[in-house]
Every structure is written in structure tokens, then in C-alpha cells.
Specification:
By secondary structure, the chain is mainly α. Helices cover 92% and strands 0% of the residues. Helix 1 runs antiparallel to helix 2. The relative contact order is 0.03.
Length: 159
Amino acid sequence: MLRIDSNMIWVFINLIIFIVVLWIPLFRPVLNIIDKRRQMIDDQFATADKKNKEAESLKKQYEDSLSGAKQESVQIIENAQKRGEDQYKQIVGDAQNKATELLKNANLDVEREREKALQEAQAEIGDLAMQAAVKIVSSANSDMTDEEIYNEFLKKTEE
């Protein structure tokens, strides 16, 4: 069994004195270093949490910005398509107006040419009728018959 004798008691007393004596110069600085280290680790965790929250906030901000940019790009594309359609309609309308105007002018030119040709034909017919009348009057003095005068008139009108 275990005997407790005086040596054993003195060993325990010495051990307690040794711990108390070492506690002041050795264990307090070690405990202070451990406390400082613990504080530094806690500060690093707090800083990491803060930076993590900032990163999450920036991520959300970037995602919102990206979403806004996508919506803006869709809006820009829609506006560009609408402007393109409007320009297309304007160009087609202008082309139709020009075509209508050209057709109208062409019809007016054709009508003028027809009127001019009609006036020239009437003038020529009038001249031919006058020449025929002169020949009839002059042929009354000559031996030409009415049928010969009529045939000559037809030949001149065919030319």
C-alpha cells in the first residue's frame, strides 16, 4: 500500500512552492501570450466575418447591376428594333410616294403628248383639208374627177 511519510509531504509542499514561484515569472507571461493569441484569433475571425459580409454585399450589388444591365440591353435592343421598323416604314412610304408621284408625272406627260399629237393631227388634217379644197376649186378648172382628188387625198394622209 501506499505509505505517506514525511518525505512525501515535503515533496508535495516543495512542488506547490515551486509552482507558485514559477507561476509569477513563467506561467503569467505564457498565459498573457495565450490570451493575446486568443484575442488576435478572435479579431481575425471578426475581420474575416466583416470581409465576408462585405463580399456578400458586393456580390449582391454586382448581381443587381448585372441584372439591370441585362434589362437595359433588352430595352436598347427593343428600342433599336422599333426605330428600325419605323425607318423601314418611312422608307417604304417615301418610296411609295415617289412612285406615285412618278406615275402621276408620267401620266401627265403621256396626256400632254397625246394632246400635242392630237393638235398636230388636227392641224395636219386641217392643212390637208385646205389643200384638198384648193385642189377641188382649182380642179374645177381642170379635168380631174372627184374620185381622183379623193384618192390623192387618201395617199397624202397615209404618208
